[in-house]
Specification:
Among the domains are: about 30-185, Galactose-binding domain-like (Jelly Rolls, Sandwich), CATH 2.60.120; about 265-365, Galactose-binding domain-like (Jelly Rolls, Sandwich), CATH 2.60.120.260. It has 1 helix and 28 strands. It has one helix at about 1-25, and strands spanning about 30, 45, 50, 55-60, 60-65, 70, 75, 85-90, 95-100, 105-115, 120-125, 130-135, 145-155, 160-165, 175-185, 215-220, 235, 240-245, 255-260, 265-275, 280-285, 295-305, 305-315, 320-330, 335-340, 345, 350, 355-365. The longest helix is centred in the N-terminal third of the chain and has 23 residues, at about 1-25. It is globular, with a radius of gyration of 24 Å. The relative contact order is 0.12.
């Protein structure tokens, strides 16, 4: 009896300790000096080139850029957050040690980036052993700055967040600008009651800063990568989808949705458990983000061998309509796929597209067959 009581007490202590560890966690929002507003010492600056940054370690040709600064070609460099940003030259990188992580927990890192030279610039982002390539050659905003998201699963309580410019240009200083690094703990992908899909309303997702007016790009990923949008994958070579919030955009349901900004070159998808031969109904909202994308916005949705195009007649001011697709599963897993049916642009020439939200997948119950009564 005493041994049983002792065991229960020990188990309680372990559980309380584990809960406290999870609760302590990391603070959601900007990383220490995530917006580079802490100015380096004068001894660490040689013109714009910097040899040290508060809270960061640097390697290679790194520049400390002030908003409004001119390049040699006359291009004015703007900064999206505060007055300073960092430019990564040839093979340059910055890194910061993330602490207070919970093992096996999911995290998203968000930051802003702008291309300044080459057309095919890209960044290698890693946290621990996992890494991902973020293509930044496509510009989705009129300012030239886009915000990106990256996700990882912690293996330990600390991890090095590293951002590396893998490019090599004739000008060693040529490379992307980066700014506004933030972090958020993600909920593990899970299904809500009555929905076979996980995170069907997109309420679980990466950190969106309160002053971010253009949303977050969720870049393409390998199937084994951790998604910044729990439950969902983005399949493409170089294109992204955009995660938008209700504070700055029109959202059909809840606080967040996904805008398909890359035409048919990018697909938003999720694999759901199904039973071969059984009937299912996929329901979803298609709308516009209220960002001036005033044209008929079409989404192509497919599952198993069934597909359908749903069009929302957008005035560019918001609004949405419901769409449905019924299909019969052909396997024990079915991929639900959303793609923009066309490429769309706003009057300023920036990319836009239909918004997808409030997605649910349910089993269709067929009515029972009538019994014939013989007299």
């Amino acid at each position: 009896m005493a041994e049983s009581t002792s065991t229960r007490c020990l188990l309680l202590v372990v559980l309380v300790g584990a809960a406290a560890g999870v609760a302590s966690g990391i603070t959601e929002g900007l990383l220490p000096n995530g917006n580079f507003e802490q100015v380096p010492d004068a001894s660490q600056l040689n013109g714009t080139r910097v040899t040290g940054l508060p809270s960061w370690e640097i390697s290679g040709f790194v520049e400390y850029i002030q908003s409004g600064q001119n390049q040699q070609d006359g291009m004015v460099l703007a900064v999206p957050e505060g007055a300073h940003a960092v430019r990564l030259g040839n093979d340059a990188s910055i890194r910061q040690l993330l602490t207070g992580l919970s093992r096996r927990a999911f995290y998203s890192v968000t930051f802003s980036a702008a291309r300044t030279c080459a057309q095919a610039e890209q960044l290698n982002v890693s946290a621990g052993p996992e890494s991902g390539i973020l293509p930044i050659q496509t510009v989705y905003t009129s300012s030239g700055w886009d915000s990106y998201s990256y996700a990882f699963r912690a293996r330990h309580t600390t991890a090095w967040l590293t951002v590396h410019n893998t490019g090599v240009d004739e000008d060693p200083a040529c490379g992307p600008l980066v700014d506004a690094f933030a972090i958020k703990t993600l909920n593990p992908p899970h299904r809500e009651k009555g929905n076979l899909l996980k995170n069907g309303d997109f309420e679980d997702g990466p950190y969106v800063a309160p002053d971010n007016p253009w949303g977050l790009l969720v870049p393409p990923m390998d199937e084994d990568d951790v998604s910044p949008l729990p439950g969902w994958m983005i399949m493409s070579d170089t294109k992204s989808v955009r995660y938008v919030d209700a504070a700055h955009h029109k959202v059909p349901h809840g606080s967040y949705a996904v805008e398909l900004v890359a035409g048919s070159e990018c697909a938003l998808l999720q694999e759901a458990r199904t039973v071969a031969g059984r009937a299912y109904k996929l329901s979803f909202s298609v709308g516009d983000a209220g960002n001036g994308c005033a044209q008929p916005l079409a989404v192509r949705v497919s599952a198993a061998y069934s597909s359908q195009v749903v069009t929302h007649q957008s005035q560019g001011t918001g609004g949405s309509r419901r769409g449905e697709l019924e299909f019969a599963a052909i396997a024990d897993a079915t991929r639900v796929v959303f793609q923009s049916a066309n490429h769309y642009m706003k009057p300023d020439g920036t990319l836009c597209g239909p918004v997808v939200d409030d997605v649910s997948l349910v089993t269709v119950r067929k009515p029972a067959a009538r019994r014939r009564v013989f007299m």
